[in-house]
Amino acid sequence: MTAIHFAARCAALVCTLAAFPLAAHAQVALSEVFYDATGSDDGFEWIELRNTSDAPVELTGFSLGWGGSTYLSGAVALAGVVEAGGYFTVGGPESTPDNASPVFDLALDLESDLQNSGETADGVALFDVPVEEVTAETVPLAVVIYGAENSSGLLDETGLPGAVDVADAPGGSSIERGSDGVWRVQAAPTPRAPARPVPEPAGIA
Fold it and tell me: Which among 115, 126, 121, 113 is positioned nearest to 48, based on CA atoms?
Protein backbone atom coordinates (compact mmCIF):
# COMPACT_ATOMS: atom_id res chain seq x y z
CA MET A 1 0.00 0.00 0.00
CA THR A 2 1.41 3.38 -0.98
CA ALA A 3 1.64 6.28 1.42
CA ILE A 4 -1.04 8.08 -0.59
CA HIS A 5 -3.43 5.14 -0.38
CA PHE A 6 -2.76 4.77 3.36
CA ALA A 7 -3.43 8.47 3.96
CA ALA A 8 -6.66 8.28 1.97
CA ARG A 9 -7.89 5.29 3.98
CA CYS A 10 -7.03 7.01 7.26
CA ALA A 11 -8.88 10.13 6.17
CA ALA A 12 -11.95 8.07 5.26
CA LEU A 13 -11.83 6.28 8.62
CA VAL A 14 -11.57 9.58 10.48
CA CYS A 15 -14.56 10.95 8.59
CA THR A 16 -16.58 7.82 9.36
CA LEU A 17 -15.75 7.92 13.06
CA ALA A 18 -16.49 11.63 13.22
CA ALA A 19 -19.88 11.24 11.57
CA PHE A 20 -20.97 8.27 13.67
CA PRO A 21 -21.22 10.14 17.01
CA LEU A 22 -23.07 12.95 15.25
CA ALA A 23 -25.79 10.54 14.19
CA ALA A 24 -26.13 9.30 17.77
CA HIS A 25 -25.74 12.85 19.07
CA ALA A 26 -29.24 13.85 17.97
CA GLN A 27 -30.74 10.84 19.73
CA VAL A 28 -29.98 12.04 23.27
CA ALA A 29 -33.14 13.48 24.80
CA LEU A 30 -34.74 14.49 28.06
CA SER A 31 -36.81 11.61 29.43
CA GLU A 32 -37.82 12.45 33.00
CA VAL A 33 -37.55 15.37 35.43
CA PHE A 34 -38.09 15.37 39.19
CA TYR A 35 -38.28 18.99 40.29
CA ASP A 36 -40.61 19.14 43.29
CA ALA A 37 -39.98 16.95 46.33
CA THR A 38 -42.57 16.70 49.09
CA GLY A 39 -40.20 18.55 51.42
CA SER A 40 -37.18 20.67 50.56
CA ASP A 41 -36.14 20.45 46.91
CA ASP A 42 -32.49 21.27 47.58
CA GLY A 43 -30.33 18.25 46.82
CA PHE A 44 -33.25 16.04 45.79
CA GLU A 45 -33.96 17.18 42.23
CA TRP A 46 -32.82 15.22 39.19
CA ILE A 47 -32.96 15.17 35.40
CA GLU A 48 -32.83 11.98 33.34
CA LEU A 49 -31.52 11.70 29.78
CA ARG A 50 -32.04 8.82 27.39
CA ASN A 51 -29.90 7.70 24.46
CA THR A 52 -32.23 6.15 21.87
CA SER A 53 -29.41 5.34 19.44
CA ASP A 54 -27.41 2.13 19.11
CA ALA A 55 -24.10 3.83 19.94
CA PRO A 56 -22.69 5.36 23.14
CA VAL A 57 -22.71 9.16 23.30
CA GLU A 58 -20.04 11.18 25.06
CA LEU A 59 -21.65 14.11 26.88
CA THR A 60 -18.63 16.39 27.00
CA GLY A 61 -19.77 19.60 25.32
CA PHE A 62 -23.41 19.10 26.27
CA SER A 63 -25.15 21.18 28.94
CA LEU A 64 -28.45 21.55 30.77
CA GLY A 65 -30.28 24.77 31.55
CA TRP A 66 -33.54 25.56 33.28
CA GLY A 67 -35.75 28.41 34.39
CA GLY A 68 -38.91 30.40 33.81
CA SER A 69 -38.12 33.51 31.76
CA THR A 70 -35.15 31.81 30.02
CA TYR A 71 -33.17 28.59 30.51
CA LEU A 72 -30.44 30.55 32.30
CA SER A 73 -31.78 30.48 35.88
CA GLY A 74 -29.52 27.49 36.43
CA ALA A 75 -27.14 25.56 34.21
CA VAL A 76 -24.68 22.71 34.42
CA ALA A 77 -21.99 21.25 32.17
CA LEU A 78 -22.43 17.56 31.45
CA ALA A 79 -19.72 14.90 31.50
CA GLY A 80 -19.81 11.15 31.10
CA VAL A 81 -21.15 8.63 28.61
CA VAL A 82 -24.73 7.59 27.91
CA GLU A 83 -24.60 3.97 26.81
CA ALA A 84 -26.50 2.82 23.73
CA GLY A 85 -30.18 2.63 24.63
CA GLY A 86 -29.32 3.71 28.15
CA TYR A 87 -30.24 6.34 30.70
CA PHE A 88 -28.16 8.99 32.43
CA THR A 89 -29.33 10.71 35.62
CA VAL A 90 -28.01 14.09 36.74
CA GLY A 91 -28.69 15.78 40.07
CA GLY A 92 -29.05 15.01 43.73
CA PRO A 93 -26.75 14.27 45.36
CA GLU A 94 -29.34 13.01 47.87
CA SER A 95 -30.90 9.65 47.04
CA THR A 96 -33.75 8.54 49.29
CA PRO A 97 -37.30 7.26 48.89
CA ASP A 98 -38.35 10.93 48.92
CA ASN A 99 -36.94 11.32 45.38
CA ALA A 100 -37.39 7.70 44.21
CA SER A 101 -33.85 6.65 45.24
CA PRO A 102 -32.06 7.44 41.98
CA VAL A 103 -28.59 6.14 41.14
CA PHE A 104 -26.73 9.16 39.78
CA ASP A 105 -24.37 9.09 36.81
CA LEU A 106 -23.46 12.70 37.54
CA ALA A 107 -24.15 13.58 41.17
CA LEU A 108 -24.35 17.31 41.84
CA ASP A 109 -26.73 19.81 43.39
CA LEU A 110 -28.73 21.58 40.67
CA GLU A 111 -28.15 25.24 41.56
CA SER A 112 -30.30 27.24 41.47
CA ASP A 113 -33.10 24.76 42.10
CA LEU A 114 -35.35 23.70 39.24
CA GLN A 115 -38.46 25.87 39.03
CA ASN A 116 -41.66 24.42 40.53
CA SER A 117 -43.91 26.12 37.97
CA GLY A 118 -47.44 27.45 38.40
CA GLU A 119 -49.49 29.83 36.25
CA THR A 120 -46.36 30.69 34.28
CA ALA A 121 -44.69 27.65 32.76
CA ASP A 122 -41.09 26.71 33.45
CA GLY A 123 -38.76 24.52 31.45
CA VAL A 124 -35.67 22.34 31.29
CA ALA A 125 -33.48 22.29 28.18
CA LEU A 126 -30.67 20.10 26.86
CA PHE A 127 -28.06 21.90 24.75
CA ASP A 128 -25.40 20.42 22.50
CA VAL A 129 -22.99 23.27 23.22
CA PRO A 130 -20.79 23.92 26.27
CA VAL A 131 -22.51 25.64 29.16
CA GLU A 132 -20.44 28.82 28.80
CA GLU A 133 -21.76 29.25 25.24
CA VAL A 134 -25.46 29.03 26.14
CA THR A 135 -27.39 32.28 25.81
CA ALA A 136 -31.06 33.17 25.92
CA GLU A 137 -31.14 32.77 22.12
CA THR A 138 -29.44 29.36 21.96
CA VAL A 139 -31.72 26.78 20.33
CA PRO A 140 -31.97 23.68 22.55
CA LEU A 141 -31.52 20.12 21.37
CA ALA A 142 -34.43 18.99 23.56
CA VAL A 143 -36.83 20.69 25.96
CA VAL A 144 -39.73 20.04 28.28
CA ILE A 145 -41.99 22.97 29.19
CA TYR A 146 -44.30 22.37 32.14
CA GLY A 147 -47.02 24.32 33.90
CA ALA A 148 -49.96 26.40 32.77
CA GLU A 149 -48.92 28.87 30.06
CA ASN A 150 -45.60 29.63 28.37
CA SER A 151 -46.10 33.37 28.72
CA SER A 152 -42.32 33.92 28.91
CA GLY A 153 -41.82 32.42 25.45
CA LEU A 154 -39.38 29.66 26.39
CA LEU A 155 -37.88 28.29 23.17
CA ASP A 156 -38.43 24.77 21.90
CA GLU A 157 -36.28 22.73 19.51
CA THR A 158 -37.39 24.85 16.53
CA GLY A 159 -36.05 28.04 18.06
CA LEU A 160 -39.57 29.42 18.50
CA PRO A 161 -41.64 29.79 21.69
CA GLY A 162 -42.81 26.29 22.55
CA ALA A 163 -46.14 24.84 23.56
CA VAL A 164 -46.53 23.55 27.11
CA ASP A 165 -45.74 19.83 27.15
CA VAL A 166 -47.26 18.80 30.46
CA ALA A 167 -49.07 20.18 33.51
CA ASP A 168 -47.33 21.04 36.76
CA ALA A 169 -46.50 17.90 38.77
CA PRO A 170 -47.56 17.64 42.43
CA GLY A 171 -44.85 17.31 45.05
CA GLY A 172 -43.23 13.87 45.00
CA SER A 173 -44.18 13.26 41.36
CA SER A 174 -42.12 13.62 38.20
CA ILE A 175 -42.82 14.49 34.59
CA GLU A 176 -41.92 11.69 32.19
CA ARG A 177 -41.77 11.32 28.41
CA GLY A 178 -43.64 8.19 27.34
CA SER A 179 -42.72 5.79 24.57
CA ASP A 180 -45.20 7.69 22.39
CA GLY A 181 -43.27 10.93 22.88
CA VAL A 182 -45.94 12.50 25.09
CA TRP A 183 -44.99 14.00 28.45
CA ARG A 184 -47.15 13.03 31.44
CA VAL A 185 -47.16 13.54 35.19
CA GLN A 186 -45.80 10.39 36.81
CA ALA A 187 -46.99 9.75 40.37
CA ALA A 188 -44.31 7.07 40.85
CA PRO A 189 -41.02 8.35 39.33
CA THR A 190 -38.82 5.83 37.49
CA PRO A 191 -35.20 7.05 37.47
CA ARG A 192 -32.90 5.15 35.08
CA ALA A 193 -35.74 2.89 33.99
CA PRO A 194 -38.10 2.74 31.00
CA ALA A 195 -41.19 4.92 31.10
CA ARG A 196 -44.30 3.33 32.50
CA PRO A 197 -46.72 1.95 29.88
CA VAL A 198 -48.76 4.52 27.99
CA PRO A 199 -52.28 4.62 29.45
CA GLU A 200 -54.94 3.14 27.21
CA PRO A 201 -57.66 5.51 25.99
CA ALA A 202 -60.74 5.62 28.20
CA GLY A 203 -63.36 3.08 27.25
CA ILE A 204 -60.89 0.41 26.12
CA ALA A 205 -60.94 -2.71 28.30
Answer: 126
Above 90 in pLDDT, residue 9? no
Rounded to two decimals, the pTM is 0.86
**Residues of 64-88 as b/e, b for ≥16 C-beta within 10 angstroms?**
bbbbbebbebbbbbbeeebeeeebb
Confidence of residue 46 (pLDDT cuts 50, 70, 90): very high
Reduced to 3 states, what is the DSSP secondary structure of residue 50? strand
**How far is it, in rounded angstroms, from Cα 157 to Cα 105?**
25
Residues 6+ apart with CB under 8 A from 68: 115, 117, 120, 121, 122, 123, 152, 154
DSSP 62-89: -EEEEESSSTBSEEEE--SEEPTT-EEE
Q: How many residues does the chain have?
A: 205
